[in-house]
Amino acid sequence: MFDIMGMMGKVKEAQAKIKETQAQLVHLTASGESGAGLVKVTVNGDRKVVKIDMDESLLSPQDKEMLSDLIVAATNIAMESIEGQIKEEMKKATEGMMPNIPGMDLGSMFG
User: Fold this and answer.
1) How many CB atoms lie within 10 A of CB 97?
2) How many independent structural domains does the chain possess?
3) Going by C-beta distance under 8 Å and a sequence separation of 6 or more, which residues neighbour residue 67?
4) Domain range enclosing 34
5) Any domain includes 55
6) Beta-carbon neighbour count of residue 72 at 10 Å?
7) Angle formed at CA 5 by CA 3 and CA 8, multiple of 5 degrees
8) Going edge to edge, which strands form the sheet with 29-34?
9) CATH number at residue 72
10) For residue 89, what are the CA distances in angstroms to 11, 34, 81, 104?
11) How far apart are CA 68 and CA 73, in angstroms?
């Protein structure tokens, strides 16, 4: 027989674990590089840019547009990388808490 109270307890436990994990995501970082390493952008698990490093050779007025393109490219790479880390952390947080229902990914529901 289906135990609805047990299921609700597991949901509350999963929610608490997910909230705790989300609070820790700020400590995750990922970096992306572009222009063969001329630009490096670091983001955190809150999906915020925390650092931009660039080679001094790019700091001339004639390279302004190229620098902008390199920053955007490096940021996008870093964001893709942090998304993977976030999904992995959320998956770990919910692992074994709920029955395995095909197509239901609890980690992505709260990330």
Assistant:
1) 14
2) 1
3) 39, 54, 58, 59
4) 26-96
5) yes
6) 13
7) 110
8) 29-34, 39-44, 49-54
9) 3.30.1310.10
10) 18, 26, 13, 16
11) 9
pLDDT at 17 over 80: yes
Cα dihedral value 60, 47, 30, 89, nearest 10 = 180
pLDDT at 107 over 70: no
With respect to residue 109, please indicate whether it lies within any of the assigned structural domains: no
**Structure token digits, residue 33:** 């590089």
Residue 72 maps to a domain: yes
- What the block records as the tokens of 75 is 């940021």
pLDDT in tens, 43-94: 999 999 999 999 999 999 998 999 999 999 999 999 999 999 999 988 888 7
Is position 56 within any domain? yes
What DSSP element (H or E) covers 49? strand 49-54
Q: Is residue 7 within 8 Å of 43, Cβ to Cβ?
A: no
